[in-house]
Design goal:
heterodimer, A: 292 residues, Rossmann fold, Dna Ligase, domain 1, 3 domains, five-stranded antiparallel beta sheet, 23% strand, globular, B: 58 residues, mainly beta, Rubrerythrin, domain 2, 3 strands, 0% helix
């Protein structure tokens, strides 16, 4: 089986993925997104940076840390009929919080109450509609960057003015959510195909619980309820290999906060006891064989 | 790969390279903490890793 691993650079996750492929006697070609230079209309016969034609690959596994590079590369590869993990459609939905909210709504998946507005005045109204504290997020972005918990009208006015003045047009899409008063933690669950293979609690004294921001990872048992909402959420965005971020509301019910399509998991295998990289790679190999 | 400890291009501290290091792998300088990218393995060449961009993440 010929596999291309598309990366921005090699992080801990990509080393684990390469090792997992090697465990199945597959040696993926590493392709750097900085070296991509597609001729759109020439199709998959053109050479990849590895020297092999794109069509020679049975799959391209996309692990770019750059969301936009990865997403557009998937768009091109899928348009040529190249099998990728994940697909462009899944990446395009998960890479955009607004599109994720629409997909979750369409499939009846619980999520925080969310409003969207396009000007500072209407965004102020949106914030007051969801009530304080509200959460403002960019529609694209990760690692908890540029999130704001807004406690009152003064801080809302300041944040909206900063976003309107200093941000590019992406920051003028005002995505506003209710603040879910979670119990000092959120949940990250790893879905591979139709199965939730593991989950962690991310505990923090800070309201932003990302492990990239210092959240502590501990094992979260995968109950039937958790598996059910995670698998439904994964299907809602097109399925594949996904990390579902969930919050527990005051009643202990799950709401889906975000879905990540190029998940990081370096801190999650040890507390869960699940070899996440191997589970992912065994799944993609199986899928590639089934659909070959 | 033999043990190599190339200098950090930012602060000149010795950076220990793991035995299983790969080209384009990220490593951190133990002294100044800057993120570095391994550009070559034999000999090891280090460069400052690209600055995080707004769309980077997961």
């Amino acid at each position: 089986m010929r596999v291309a691993l598309l990366v921005t650079h090699i992080r801990a996750e990509e080393k684990l993925i390469i090792e997992a492929f090697n465990n199945r006697d597959i040696s993926p070609d590493i392709i750097l997104d900085r070296e991509l230079n597609f001729e759109i209309s020439s199709g998959p016969g053109q050479p990849a940076p590895s020297g092999s034609a794109w069509r020679e690959y049975d799959m391209v596994f996309e692990r770019c840390v750059s969301t936009s590079r990865g997403m557009y590369a998937l768009a091109i590869l899928n348009s040529w009929g190249i099998r990728t993990f994940n697909t462009y459609e899944t990446a395009a939905i998960c890479g955009d919080k607004l599109r994720t909210s629409i997909a979750l709504t369409r499939h009846g998946i619980p999520q925080p109450h969310t409003r969207v507005a396009f000007t500072p005045d209407s965004a102020m109204q949106a914030i007051e509609d969801v009530e304080y504290p509200a959460v403002l997020k960019p529609v694209t972005g990760s690692w908890g960057r540029l999130l704001a918990r807004v406690h009152n009208r003064d801080s809302a006015e300041a944040i909206l003015e900063h976003r309107q003045t200093l941000g590019d047009y992406n920051h003028h899409i005002y995505y506003v959510q209710e603040y879910v008063d979670k119990p000092g933690r959120d949940i990250r669950a790893f879905v591979v195909g139709d199965r939730t293979i593991a989950a962690i609690y991310r505990e923090s004294n800070h309201w932003i619980t990302n492990t990239a921001r210092g959240g502590l990872a501990t094992n979260c048992p995968v109950t039937q309820n958790l598996d059910d909402i995670c698998v439904r959420a994964a299907r809602a965005v097109g399925g594949g290999i996904l990390a579902i971020d969930l919050l527990e509301d005051a009643g202990g019910n799950y709401v889906v906060n975000e879905i990540n399509h190029t998940m990081e998991f370096r801190n999650s295998s040890q507390p869960t006891g699940v070899n996440i990289a191997q589970a992912v790679i065994d799944y993609v190999i199986e899928q590639a064989r089934v659909t070959a | 790969m033999t043990n190599q400890t190339p200098p950090c291009p930012e602060c000149d501290a010795e950076v220990e390279i793991p035995a299983d290091a790969m080209e384009n792998e990220l490593v951190a300088c133990p002294d100044c903490g800057v993120e570095l990218e391994i550009m070559s393995l034999d000999p090891v060449g280090l460069e400052l890793a690209p600055e995080i961009e707004e769309d980077w993440g997961e």
